[in-house]
Amino acid sequence: MTKIKTDICVIGAGSGGLSLAAGAVQMGAKVVLIEKGEMGGDCLNYGCVPSKALLHAGAAGMDWTAAHHHVKRAIATIAPHDGQERFEGLGCIVIREHARFTGPREVVAGDTTIRAKRFVIATGSRPFVPEVPGLDEVPYLTNETIFDLVEKPTHLIVIGGGPIGIEMATAHRRFGCDVTVLEGEKALGKDDPEAAALVLDALRADGVEIVENAKAVRVRETGGKVEVVTEDGGVFTGSHLLIAVGRKANIDDMGLKDAGVRTDGTAVHVNDRLRTSNRRVYALGDVTGGLQFTHVAGYQGGVAIRPTVLRLPAKARTDHLPWCTYSNPELAQVGMTEAAARETYGGRIDVLRADFAGNDRAVATGRTDGFIKVIALRGKPIGVTLVGDHAGELIAPWSLVLSKGLKLSDISGMVLPYPTLAEISKRAAGNYFAPKLFENDKLKRVVRVIQRFVP
Ligand SMILES: Cc1cc2nc3c(=O)[nH]c(=O)nc-3n(C[C@H](O)[C@H](O)[C@H](O)COP(=O)(O)OP(=O)(O)OC[C@H]3O[C@@H](n4cnc5c(N)ncnc54)[C@H](O)[C@@H]3O)c2cc1C
Ligand SMILES: NC(=O)c1ccc[n+]([C@@H]2O[C@H](COP(=O)([O-])OP(=O)(O)OC[C@H]3O[C@@H](n4cnc5c(N)ncnc54)[C@H](O)[C@@H]3O)[C@@H](O)[C@H]2O)c1
């Protein structure tokens, strides 16, 4: 056994673990980074990167083979940034083994024992496979295998209408596959329902069959095809089956009990400082079961640098976190949805809207489907829903607005180049002031007096 003593031991070299490790080592801490699979984790190898590359390849009219080369090329181009060589170059000790706690202050990985002043669990998540009768007897795909499909599915059945299901449906339809999405409740159910409906209608118009309230309850293989039966008795047959019903945190076989790290059975429990029940152990990213996004794991990695490297307190916020589903059109959200804000603040919120149809650039490009909805409390935005062309890019300034607590007047007062889609944000914010300025009898009287008496 080799024994290593270090300042920080990071378990998992995905979005969260890599952010923290890179920051910590460059600030002067001794860092051991342990990864049992591919460097870069889910996002690079089986998640964000291949899914967005496949979506692009479909939109660019590539054929199936070219698309798969494009996907592999995108991963290979980004991989060195997350690679072992780069992290060793930065000064980390990188160990490619499964890590397991053997006590509150010790981890074993292969034939190395690591004692560290602080540990960071960033082991991510994997596809959750539900216990649907028959599923274990049919071949099925998950996000870990779908990007390696050599043959193009003639008919892809997707169980689950969340972001993975909807993005994969969008991508595969672009290659001419028949696609059926079976969603147990409401597709894109975590998003604003009006925005989600717009995306789903567009996908249906593109030829994707989306069936809601259709929980898969039985699966079987019949004549070389896969058949899925839903709760209400519906029967759907396709050539391939993708399971996309959520994630399972990677907490198994990690000795978490020995380490005194509490879980709720499905995820590692952390406080708002990302600390676990063991005060020397922090956890971040998908393994904590919160919002499961690359940028959230990265943000939390940055937050956890303060207590682990500098012994300074830090809190991880959740009120300013954005996300985007790369459907067509895209659907982006930051902060509260209208429904969540109404639940918390009732009638005290203002909801300000603007439609893409009223934006000159959207008219010029013929992409007029979509809208922005800004939810504000006393003149300050607390949430924004954006659905439409480039929604993922258009949400960016709103992330800044929410993180810095800026006001609607900061957005309405911006000068933007004309004609841009970005003007839609200014229009929505301006709608807060328009009635106060233009439907105000008192102001009208004052202006009349000024115009009459002031030379
Ligand atoms: C299909 C798909 C598309 C997605 N698209 C997006 C997107 O567009 N935008 C976005 O923001 N998010 C997206 N996500 C989510 C994003 O991929 C995750 O939120 C992100 O990867 C989480 O980062 P993480 O560091 O928590 O975990 P991961 O990236 O999963 O990294 C964890 C690492 O820990 C390793 N590990 C686990 N257990 C151990 C152990 N015991 N010892 C050693 N190593 C271990 C794993 O091998 C893995 O490499 C997508 C996810 C999927 C599945
Ligand atoms: N663009 C992005 O940022 C992006 C893209 C993909 C994934 N992700 C991340 O990955 C996470 C996981 O995505 P996901 O789509 O797997 O999960 P999800 O939990 O968001 O959605 C899963 C869906 O499956 C449905 N479902 C569950 N059991 C079912 C059954 N038996 N039959 C039919 N439907 C069933 C649920 O009702 C739910 O709507 C997301 O929450 C997100 O954090 C992000």
UniProtKB/TrEMBL annotation:
Entry-linked InterPro entries: FAD/NAD-binding_dom, Pyr_nuc-diS_OxRdtase, Pyr_nucl-diS_OxRdtase_dimer, Pyr_OxRdtase_I_AS
Every FAD/NAD(P)-binding domain range: 7-301
Keywords carried by this UniProt record: Disulfide bond, FAD, Flavoprotein, NADP, Oxidoreductase, Redox-active center
Record domain Pyridine nucleotide-disulphide oxidoreductase dimerisation: where: 322-428
Cofactor(s) this protein requires: FAD
Membrane-crossing residue ranges in chain numbering: none
A Pfam family recorded for this sequence: Pyr_redox_2
Coiled-coil regions listed: none
Family, as annotated: Belongs to the class-I pyridine nucleotide-disulfide oxidoreductase family.
Name of the protein in its database record: FAD-dependent oxidoreductase
Natural source organism: Maritimibacter dapengensis
Lineage: Bacteria, Pseudomonadati, Pseudomonadota, Alphaproteobacteria, Rhodobacterales
